[in-house]
Amino acid sequence: MKENDLIVVASSNEGKVKELAKFLNGAAVRVTILPNAEAVLEGVEGEVDYEANAVAKARRAAEVSGNLSLGEDSGLEVDCLRGAPGPLSARFVSPSASPDERNEALLQRLRNVPRDKRTARFVSVVAIAEANGEVHVFRGECEGRIALDAAGEHGFGYDPIFIPQGYDRTFGELGLDIKNKISHRARAMAKVKDYLISNV
Ligand code: IMP
User: Fold this and answer.
1) Residue 4 has pLDDT above 60, yes or no
2) Which residues 6+ apart lie within 8 Å of 55 measured at CB?
3) What residue owns the CA closest to ligand 1's atom 13?
4) CA-CA distance, 10 to 108, in Å (whole number)?
5) Contacts of 1 (CB under 8 A, 6+ apart)
6) I need a labelling partner for 195 at 20 to 30 A (CA). Which of 49, 108, 111, 126 fits?
């Protein structure tokens, strides 16, 4: 990989871009947010499929910027809901619902489900698009279960109701040091980093 290759992250979420950039520490890349991302990515993320969404975002960013670009799509799959909300996680309940409202609605749906049937996983799919149109896809998963109640202030989204395998506290309680070692995004991004170091 050439020193200081530029990766443009196809997201309008500065927090997400910072988090993704941290996972690429040591890969000799400069990470930047896609300028005017909200407008540029409008209508791109329409599929009920992580990979299609990640690829579409990365491709659009590569087309517009002319640089190596990264798109990510993620979600929470709950087994007793047949994998829902999945790729629709950001819009679960309604597009305007708050994270707390989404978590409460999910806990309500599972109110009669016993602990051993509350299995779930976070999924992250990352696409890297090269300026020549070539695209590579990387997937990371984090197994766990849905808590009985929300707990913890760390992280975002469904973190207060997700207990990763091997722990008995939620990501919201465990904090980012632990989450960033074992999360779906950490696992997908470890593969991205290996790929960038040896191929670009
Ligand atoms: P998108 O990838 O921006 O479409 O959003 C995925 C949605 O999945 C987020 O808005 C969250 O609701 C949920 N999600 C994805 N990753 C995480 C995570 O690490 N913690 C909590 N919620 C997550």
Assistant:
1) no
2) 71, 127, 129, 135, 137
3) 75
4) 34
5) 27, 28, 29, 196, 197, 198, 199, 200
6) 49
The number of domains in the chain is 1
- What is the structure's pLDDT at 167? 98
Give, for 125, the enclosing helix (H) or strand (E).
strand 119-129
Beta carbon of 156 within 6 Å of any ligand 1 atom: yes
What three-state secondary structure class fits 187?
A: helix
Report CA(123)–ligand 1 centroid distance (Å).
9
* Burial per residue of 67-97, b for 16 or more beta-carbon CB atoms within 10 angstroms, e otherwise: bbbbbbbbbbbbebbeebbbbebeebeeeee
Q: How far is the CA of 96 from the centre of ligand 1 (A)?
A: 15
Tell me the pTM.
0.95
> The domain spanning residue 166 has which CATH number?
3.90.950.10
d(CA 86, ligand 1 centre) in Å: 9
For residue 22, give its domain range: 5-199
pLDDT confidence band for 3 (50 / 70 / 90): very low
Question: How many Å lie between the centroid of ligand 1 and the Cα of residue 100?
Answer: 13
Q: Is 71 in the pocket of ligand 1 (CB under 6 A)?
A: no
Please give the Cα distance from 197 to 85 (Å, whole number). 34
Pocket lining: 144 vs ligand 1, CB cutoff 6 Å: no
- Catalytic residues, by residue number, are 73
